[in-house]
Structure formats: C-alpha cells, structure tokens
Design a protein that fits this description.
This protein has 328 residues and is an alpha/beta fold. The protein is 44% helix and 12% strand. Strands 5-4-6-7 form a 4-stranded parallel beta sheet, with helices on both faces. A 3-stranded antiparallel beta sheet has the order 1-2-3. A two-stranded antiparallel sheet has the order 8-9. The structure holds adenosine-3'-5'-diphosphate (A3P). The site of adenosine-3'-5'-diphosphate has 21 residues, from helix 3, helix 8 and helix 15.
Length: 328
C-alpha cells in the first residue's frame, strides 16, 4: 500500500535532522510511512522536526490556553468551544458574523507542532492576541518546558475518548484523507501495538490524566462522552476552569446554550466552510474540512470492530488504566 499524493506530502527535512532521525528506533506504518520513537511516543518525521523546534523555541505565557488531545478524540470540537468561550464578549455566539461561521476551528486555533512550528512556519505567534489560544497533540511529558514548568500558569484543556471510537474515527479519517486501502484490521493492529501517530494512545491519555489530578488548576481533563451527554454542563466547567465563568446575565440570556449549539456537530458540520473548505495540516497533509466531521457519535465502534477486537482493546484498557482511577 502506498500513501496517496494529497496525504502526508514528501518531507523536506534538513540534513542534520535526517542524521538525528537515523539514531531513533523506527517502524513502518501500513500507510508506508515511518514512525520514529522519541521520548516514548511515535511521530512522523515532519511532526517530530516541528516538535523539537517547538521544544527548543516556544515560550509559554501565563495567559496561554492550550487545547490538547490525541487525534480523533474531539479536538476540533474543543477548539471551537474554547474559542467561543474566550472570545464571547467580542463575538457573542449568536452574532451572524461569528468567526466560527466562516472559519474552521483549526484555522482559529492552530497546532503548535503543525501551524506554528511546522516546516512552512506559516503563522507568526507574535501576532496572536492575548490570551493566546493554541493546540497540540504532543504528549504531556514532551510539551515544551515553559508550558510544564512548575511556575507556569497557563491552562491546559485535554479531551479523551473511548479508545474504540477513537480508533474507528482514525481509520475513517485516514481512509477519507488519502490512505484508501487501509483496513480497520490494519489500523486496529497498529493501534494495539501503540504505533498510531502520537501513540501509544493510553500513555498519552494517562500523562494528561495524572497531571490533571496533580495540578487540577492547570489541566482540565474532559471526556468526549461527557461532552456529548451534557454539553452545557461541560461548557460551564471549561468556562470556570479558564477563569471566565458565565455571569447570571449570560445564563439568563441563554449564552451557554448558544455556544453549545454553535459548536455542536450539527452546527459546525452544516457550515459552508466545513462542507467545502480544506485544511492544511502544515507540511503534512491537505485534508477536506468535511473529513473532520464524520458522525460525531458515541459507540460507533460497534459497527466496525469484531468481538475479538473489542475484547483485546478492553483488555488493554483494563491493564493500562488499572489503578489510575480513569475510566474511558
Ligand atoms: P467520528 O469520526 O467518530 O465521527 P478530532 O477533532 O480530534 O479529529 O476528532 C474527530 C472526531 O470528532 C470525529 O468523530 C468527528 O466527527 C467528531 N467531531 C467533530 N466535531 C464535533 C462536534 N462539534 N461535536 C461532536 N463531535 C465532533
């Protein structure tokens, strides 16, 4: 199987970085691309180059807010919610010209290791308004020191999801984005071996989970399933965590529900920009915005995973999360 031309474009890596890569353990994925093992997690070469640049150069500010996750857990959704919450004075959710109506959430909340420190270096972080709202899929332990340091006051939102739904979502996303022959069984195998990009999934989740227990003022751990079950309550929780709780007037005026609606799957996926637009995952891929909105449901894995697959993942969850207090 070979990767198609629109997904995972040819890397333009520096000679120094190629030499560094040659010192790392690597594994070839079913998409024909190598994953490199760095600080306990697996990366594609371009993402790793950007991550290292980011580790070397990124300086966090106390007012920074980060949307974090491992892929396919609800990143797009949480980006939209965080943006709508932080900008609601300037852009009330009901305003007809709300930025989320004309821009995809990924255009409004860039990834550190793609938009900002990716090879094209398209975005200039100095021009960002304060508080800076940024995102990353980088595991907690590999975040730039200035974000993790004990003196840092920046806020981190993390969204996790049932492993089985995340895996099925990842498979559909890759298939729709240019790796059409990839089977669910192949995706499943890589996932269980911990080889998915930014994987192992469970170590990623546990890193942020533990930090959220140790530093609840700094890391808020959210679950996709809770957000689906009680979106208004979770939106209020995020607002409180970010230090911008809803006032009595806003509650009365229905601002919470408006934000929930604006950021809902139906709300976002129906917009022209998300039906027709494209998204550059800098230096890595160009994807249709529509591929970021598939079903947006809990439990779709039942339609794709065999009983054996289900058992294997459940065993992994039991083993890896045992004693952590985390249930996904
Ligand atoms: P499915 O493939 O299960 O539908 P990410 O944004 O991290 O890439 O996650 C993508 C998953 O979140 C996809 O799941 C997508 O449909 C779902 N999603 C995107 N926007 C959403 C929203 N506003 N509400 C709920 N789910 C959403």
């Amino acid at each position: 199987m070979s990767a198609s031309s629109n997904f995972f474009r040819s890397p333009q890596l520096s000679q120094d970085f190629k030499e560094f890569l040659s010192t790392l353990p690597k594994e070839k994925g079913k998409d024909s691309l190598y994953r490199y093992h760095y600080q306990g997690f697996w990366y594609l070469d371009l993402l790793l180059e950007a991550l290292i640049s980011c580790q070397q150069h990124f300086q966090a500010e106390d007012s920074d807010v980060f949307v974090t996750s491992t892929p396919k857990c609800g990143t797009t959704w949480l980006k939209a919610i965080a943006f709508a919450l932080l900008n609601r004075r300037r852009h009330p959710a009901a305003s007809g010209d709300h930025p989320l109506i004309s821009s995809n959430p990924h255009d409004l909340v860039p990834f550190l290791e793609m938009g900002l420190y990716g090879t094209s270096k398209a975005l200039d972080i100095a021009s960002f308004p304060s508080p800076r709202l940024l995102a990353t899929h980088v595991p907690y332990s590999s975040l730039p020191e200035s974000i993790r340091s004990s003196g840092s006051k920046c806020k981190i939102l993390y969204v996790a999801r049932d492993l089985k739904d995340a895996l099925v979502s990842e498979w559909h996303f890759l298939a729709r984005s240019g790796v059409p022959d990839l089977t669910v069984a192949e995706t499943f195998k890589e996932f269980c071996e911990g080889l998915s990009i930014y994987g192992p999934f469970w170590d990623h989740v546990l890193g942020y989970w533990k930090e959220s227990l140790e530093n609840p003022d700094r890391v808020l751990f959210l679950k996709y399933e809770d957000m689906k079950a009680r979106p208004a309550a979770e939106v209020r929780r995020v607002a409180e965590f970010l230090g911008c709780p809803f006032s009595a007037e806003e509650e009365e005026a229905g601002e919470v529900d408006r934000i929930v609606e604006l950021c809902s799957f139906e709300g976002l996926s129906g917009l022209e920009v998300n039906k027709k637009g494209k998204q550059e995952v800098t230096g890595v891929a160009i994807v249709d915005n529509s591929s970021l909105f598939r079903r947006g449901e809990v439990g779709d894995w039942k339609n794709h995973l065999s009983p054996e697959m289900t058992k294997r993942i459940d065993r992994i969850v039991e083993e890896k999360f045992c004693g952590s207090g985390l249930f996904l």
